[in-house]
Amino acid sequence: TQLLEQSPQFLSIQEGENLTVYCNSSSVFSSLQWYRQEPGEGPVLLVTVVTGGEVKKLKRLTFQFGDARKDSSLHITAAQPGDTGLYLCAGAGGSEKLVFGKGTKLTVNP
Amino acid sequence: NAGVMQNPRHLVRRRGQEARLRCSPMKGHSHVYWYRQLPEEGLKFMVYLQKENIIDESGMPKERFSAEFPKEGPSILRIQQVVRGDSAAYFCASGQELKRYTFGSGTRLTVV
């Protein structure tokens, strides 16, 4: 069974700080996605990484896929209150379904 | 271009009743996926359907749960004889390929 472990589970920081959240597994994934979910809404896709070692940037967000395609990280620079939300990583293992981590609940305080 | 539409947004059922959750995929999408999110848990895959076909139902409980995606109309997730443990948020996603899922806003089912 493929599992994705996300850490930390909760993170509360002040506006302007930097942060990194992690997504780890013992399994290899063909691709990995990051989503952000706000209360009462569905997850919204932020990025898909496919190649081991790949780095993608989306404004202040930097996503990295591990060389062995077992782990990923999300780094946010100069966090803003609008970044508050639940960040989920999800891995694709060759079938048409995603395996999700439990998420990191981020709170950015003004 | 409407996104993935799910209804109802909130559904309350008494134990033993049936729950029907609907999902209309994005225009042009023929693949529908259902996921369930329990409190403090990540999303768990339930079923993957294409028009008139169930492709992968490996995440569906063996009893009481069924899904369909007819030629015309929305995809339906049906839960018979609901129990309290079925209370969760149910999300539908559509996409032409796995890497480009779009999720709906979900149906929050509460069983009382």
- Report, as a whole number of angstroms, the end-to-end distance of chain A: 40 Å
Summed over residues and divided by their number, the pLDDT of chain B gives a mean of 92
User: Strand fraction band of chain B?
Assistant: over 45%
Number of strands of chain B: 11
Query: Approximately what portion of the residues of chain A adopt beta-strand conformation?
Result: over 45%
Largest sheet of chain A, in brief, is:
6 strands, mixed
Low-confidence stretches of chain B: none
Cα(first) to Cα(last) distance of chain B is 36 Å
Helix content of chain B: under 10%
Q: What oligomeric state do these chains adopt? A: heterodimer
Task: Tell me the Rg of chain B in angstroms.
Answer: 13 Å
Q: Assign the structural class of chain B, choosing from mainly alpha, mainly beta, alpha/beta, alpha+beta, or little secondary structure.
A: mainly beta
Number of strands of chain A: 11
Number of helices of chain A: 0
Based on CA atoms alone, the radius of gyration of chain A comes out at 13 Å
Number of helices of chain B: 0
Task: Summarize this structure briefly.
Chain A is mainly β. Chain A contains no helices and 11 strands. The model of chain A has no long low-confidence stretch (mean pLDDT 94).
Would you mind describing this structure in some detail?
- Chain A has 110 residues and is mostly beta strands.
- Chain A has strands spanning 5-7, 10-14, 19-24, 31-37, 44-49, 55-58, 61-65, 71-76, 85-92, 98-100, 104-109.
- The relative contact order of chain A is 0.34.
- The model of chain A has no long low-confidence stretch (mean pLDDT 94).
- With 112 residues, chain B is mainly β.
- Chain B has no helices and eleven strands.
- In chain B, strands 2, 4, 5, 6, 9, 10 and 11 form a seven-stranded mixed β-sheet that branches. Chain B has a four-stranded antiparallel β-sheet with strand order 1-3-8-7, with no helix packed on it.
- Chain B is globular.
- Classes of the chains: A mainly beta (110), B mainly beta (112).
- The A-B interface holds A 4, 31, 33, 35, 40-45, 48, 50, 88, 90, 92, 95-103 and B 4, 31, 33, 35, 40-45, 48, 55-56, 58-59, 91, 93, 98-106, 108.
